[in-house]
Amino acid sequence: MKKIKYFVAALAIGFITNSCASDLNTLPEGDISGEQLNDDQSKPEKILGGIYLDLRSNGAGGTTSHSDFGIMAIKAGADLMSNDVIQSTNQHLGMFYNYEATNASNLASEIVWTTFYARIFVINKLLDDLQNDGNAKNRAIKGQLLALRAYSYFYLVRFYAHDYKEHPSDPGLPLVLTSSNPNQGLPRSTVSEVYGQITKDIEESIGLLDSFARPSRAQIDQRTAKAIAAEVFLQTGDYAKAGKYADESKQGIALMTENEYTTTGFSNINNPEVIWGFHNTISTMSIGNYYASFFSMFDNTNEGYAGAAQIRKLIDKRLYEAIPETDYRKKYSTEARLPNIPLTVKRKTTRPT
Predict the structure, then answer these.
(1) Phi and psi for 86 in degrees, rounded to 5?
(2) Measured between alpha carbons, how far is 110 from 103 in angstroms, rounded to an integer?
(3) Per-residue pLDDT at 40
(4) Is the dihedral of CA 236, 313, 291, 219 positive or negative?
(5) What is the per-residue pLDDT for 317?
(6) How far apart are CA 175 and CA 130, in angstroms?
(7) What is the pLDDT of residue 285?
(8) Alpha helix locations (H) across 20-178?
């Protein structure tokens, strides 16, 4: 039985995980002290900040593996399970690339599970404590928490269950929605029920964030919530809502110019295309591990696993060749600028059956 234990001490969130991969029941133990939230009106905001920080930190999944560095590790792993991205050497994140991550006994399964469920337990406690608090500040905090819970379950259900459109009645996930009875394991809700909760959370979040002006792009605002909603409804096949939220999320945003793309690109948090991101600096990198990071894994031109160790992530040759020659992104690719560093390889074909 899989157990996730969690606690919050001051602003630190620590995680201890025990597992025996026979089922997907969750049995969280521990609690956030009520005094922590009641003795300081800024505590909910501080703990929310801790959740954001944990979701981009090394060890978010409760392990010391360099494949464990939060949301970006899981997003990278999901990309590696597609046919677009090639990993040249079997190393960190290789369990995703080789489709071993879907095995219950694989470390990747533990990383994905713990990264999201451990935060869901903290989110639920904060939501319980804020449910009758209607002041503007806490309304915005609640909106962010609901968006984070929706986002977490959205990733979990796609890793641990079948797709929505073909298997709505199949087993999904244990839906943990409250901090009451934390020691009680829950059965798996259906895929349809999980998506029902995801859509409920994200649309309620959108309403709560209507007047929230975030201090930085590291936080979820209404635009971000709408972007998440667009992706969720695309997955469920509600294309009208997916299109509506996608259009609204990009209102007032201009795409990068060629000059922006070829100079600062995605290394600048103020890039007009960045809807939600974290400004990673030398000081913030010291919180985690330089090598256990997205840049280390994917940037072939920089120090890290991709650059120094040459464990490169490459684009599939067929996809690269499908990009028109007039597309300036192709003109400024690594292959064009640094011919000694490979960009493409034609190797991966399809997921094994």
Answers:
(1) -115, 135
(2) 10
(3) 55
(4) negative
(5) 83
(6) 20
(7) 57
(8) 34-38, 43-54, 71-80, 94-97, 107-130, 136-160
- Supply the DSSP string of 39-59, one letter for each residue: S-TTHHHHHHHHHHHHTTSTT
Cα dihedral: 46, 52, 56, 60 (round 10): 80
- Helix, strand, coil: what percent of the chain each, to 5? 45, 5, 50
* Residue of 60, 47, 51, 55 whose CA lies nearest to 17: 60
Q: Encoding tokens for residue 16?
A: 């201890």
Q: What is the pLDDT of residue 289?
A: 58
Listed as ranges, residues in the chain with pLDDT below 50 are: 1-38, 286, 288, 338, 346, 349-350, 352-353
pTM over cut 0.90: no
pLDDT at 306 (0 to 100):
83
- C-beta separation of 51 from 119 below 8 A: yes
Helix (H, G, I), strand (E, B) or coil at 246: helix
Q: What is the DSSP string of 59-76?
A: TTTSS--TT--SHHHHHH
- Give the Cα separation of 177 and 189 in Å (integer): 12
Q: Which helix (H) or strand (E) holds 236?
A: helix 222-236
Taking the C-alpha atoms of residue 56 and residue 33, their distance in angstroms, rounded to an integer, is 24
Q: Give the length of the chain.
A: 353
Look-up of token digits 């969750």: 26
- Residue 21, token pair as written in the block: 């991969």
pLDDT of residue 3: 35
DSSP for residue 291: S
| pLDDT value of position 148 | 98
The amino acid that residue 119 corresponds to is: R
Give the integer Cα–Cα distance in Å for 205 and 146: 6
The reported pLDDT for the residue numbered 30 is 35
